[in-house]
Write a structure and sequence with these properties.
binds inosine 5'-triphosphate, Maf protein, alpha/beta, binds magnesium ion, metal-binding, six-stranded mixed sheet
């Protein structure tokens, strides 16, 4: 992994939970990097409604971060929802793109959303606002996230995005 040390990594978000996920991922790989948050558009709806739309948001952010951050690697992390016959799930995707055009994708954990949250999302509201009201908190999206609230803190948003990012980096790491 030596070749990855001291590279400039641009993350396409200024959300602290996502920035922490990038820090955790490279720490887990024992790689020292410079992490630069850049505010970029996701290119998808503010509340992605499908797995594919969420994945595309991560790809769009990674590409925009790479260019805007003038980095070696651009990273996009996107959260969304996915409706299934078993109910509505929170989903997350990570994408990493290098200056040579290599692209890796990684999927995060799926979490079933309680019915009273799902019906609010079906009204077109954003999960960030809904979970704040549901939990009586403010800014959950920048802290432990919905997964943190619903798993009693056992799995935080940064952990979920860390693992999805490690999966996205895998294809870029092996020979
Ligand atoms: O600043 P950015 O990077 O946009 O961070 P965000 O918290 O808005 O996160 P996303 O855009 O990736 O998520 C898309 C929408 O889903 C919501 N969301 C996704 N996962 C969430 C979580 O774990 N907790 C709270 N809101 C979440 C969030 O409110 C967004 O409106
Ligand atoms: Mg957002």
């Amino acid at each position: 992994m030596e070749m990855w040390n001291n590279r400039k990594i641009a993350i396409g978000s200024t959300n602290p939970a996502k920035i922490q996920a990038v820090e955790l991922a490279f720490a887990a790989l024992s790689i020292a990097v410079e992490i630069v948050p850049v505010d970029v558009p996701s290119g998808v709806s503010p509340q992605p409604q499908t797995d594919t739309e969420t994945l595309q948001g991560a790809r769009n952010r990674a590409q925009a971060a790479l260019q805007q951050g003038q980095a070696d690697v651009g990273i996009g992390l996107e959260g969304g929802i996915q409706r299934t016959e078993w109910g509505m799930f929170l989903c997350n995707w990570a994408c990493a793109i290098t200056t040579s055009g290599q692209e890796g994708l990684g999927g995060g954990l799926r979490l079933p959303l309680p019915y009273d949250i799902a019906i609010e999302l079906d009204k077109g509201r954003e999960l960030g606002d809904v979970i704040d009201a549901w939990a009586g908190r403010h800014g959950v999206r920048k802290q432990e996230g919905t997964i943190g609230i619903l798993t009693q803190g056992a799995v935080r948003r940064a952990d979920m995005f860390r693992d999805a990012l490690l999966c996205a980096l895998a294809p870029l790491m092996h020979r």
